[in-house]
Amino acid sequence: MKELRLIPLCRLLTLAAWLALCWAVAEGASAQTWPDRPLKFVVAAPAGSSIDVLARIIGDRLKDRLGQAIVVDNRPAAGGTAATDFVAKSPPDGYTMVMSFNGPLAFGPHLYSKLPYDPQKDLAPVIITSSQPNVLAVTAALPANSVKELVAYAKANPGKLNFASVGNGSSSHLTMELLKATAGMDIVHVPFNGSPPAVTATVQGETQMLFAVMQPLQAQIQAGRLRALAVTTATRFALLPDLPTVAEAGFPGFEALAWNGVLVPAATPRPIVQRLNTEINAILKDPAVKSSLNAQGFELVGGTPEDFANLIRSESEKWAPVIKKTGAKID
Questions:
Q1: Which residues constitute the domain of residue 296?
Q2: Would you say 39 and 96 are in contact if contact means Cβ atoms under 8 Å apart?
Q3: N or C: the chain end with fewer CB closer than 10 Å?
Q4: What is the DSSP code string of 116-171?
């Protein structure tokens, strides 16, 4: 019987170091040649939605900065979790990224019995693109000119009013669930696949109210078809200074922001993540981009990949008890 030969620990450590060096060299070489073909920019929302508008403006500038085409791929199914899962399972080579938001990234783990991906393990955050309040808007025919009047009307008509959301598990959905639970309203949720159909349904009176970011609401509010009642920031929003907060309207401490950002598959080489972060930060600081997006209600953020990772983690921890309290579940 042959004797078993044990590899000395020092040789194992040398082999591990050599493999790590080879990996680092290969990663560095990959990053140096990247990008040498078009990139796919997956959007976790439908065409025409606020996130889609943001992604297309960033993608258009990014193609010039990287010298490669940016192909936008809208995948709005399952409240944005389908798009987020698709990118989480894509090759980590820097050629597939997603514009996602708090629904699939921070709320999903608490709304689904099992997500097909782990937001904090299967994705590498690149950058926060924007953070903005939801705006509470009602159809013009509804006899409510303030949050207090809306709550009173809903309580006088239990189960008769519908609220739209831009999707199950979205900030739009959960913000209304929080107000519903806090104010004691009996209203019915009607989820849509993105902001365009949710806004249209509210304009037409199929639903009577919704929370959404300003961009898809703006034209309808200006035309008098929707009425804006409040914003969900803790203090008044700088881009909408005349609009009161929900907290001011009698619900102290009420705050719910909608945020979004760019992510790539986990294990994407760090130099590629950093390059994307640098380029998108520059785009968000471009005066023309900033002016255009501010006019549509976007408050641009930027920052480091670590800033985005911290936001996802902290928002997940913040909303877990809120979701439990409201009883909101998707499956």
A1: 37-131+258-326
A2: yes
A3: N
A4: SS-TTTSEEEEEEEEEEE-EEEEETTSS-SSHHHHHHHHHHSTT--EEEESSTTSH
The CATH number of the domain where 92 resides is what? Answer: 3.40.190.150
Confirm if 210 and 188 have CB atoms less than 8 A apart.
no
| Domain assignment of residue 14, yes or no | no
Q: Which position has the token pair 């258009």?
A: 60
Reported as type and span, the H/E element at residue 72 is: strand 70-74
Contact 31, 89 (CB under 8 A): no
Q: Which residues are within 8 A (CB) of 137 and not within 5 positions of it... i.e. 6 or more apart?
A: 202, 209, 210, 211, 212, 217, 220, 221, 226, 227, 228, 229
Say if residue 262 is in the same domain as residue 120: yes
Query: Does the residue 28 lie in any domain?
Result: no
Neighbours of 307 (CB within 10 A): 15
pLDDT tens-digit series, residues 129-167: 999 899 999 999 999 999 999 999 999 999 999 999 998
CA 232 – CA 214 distance, rounded (Å) = 11
Note the pLDDT of residue 15. 58
Shared domain check, 139 and 127: no
Dist CA 102 CA 106 (whole Å):
5
pTM: 0.82
Cα dihedral 277, 282, 285, 291 sign: negative
Pick the range with the lowest mean pLDDT from 16-30, 77-91, 100-114, 309-323: 16-30
Look at the chain and report how many structural domains it folds into. Answer: 2
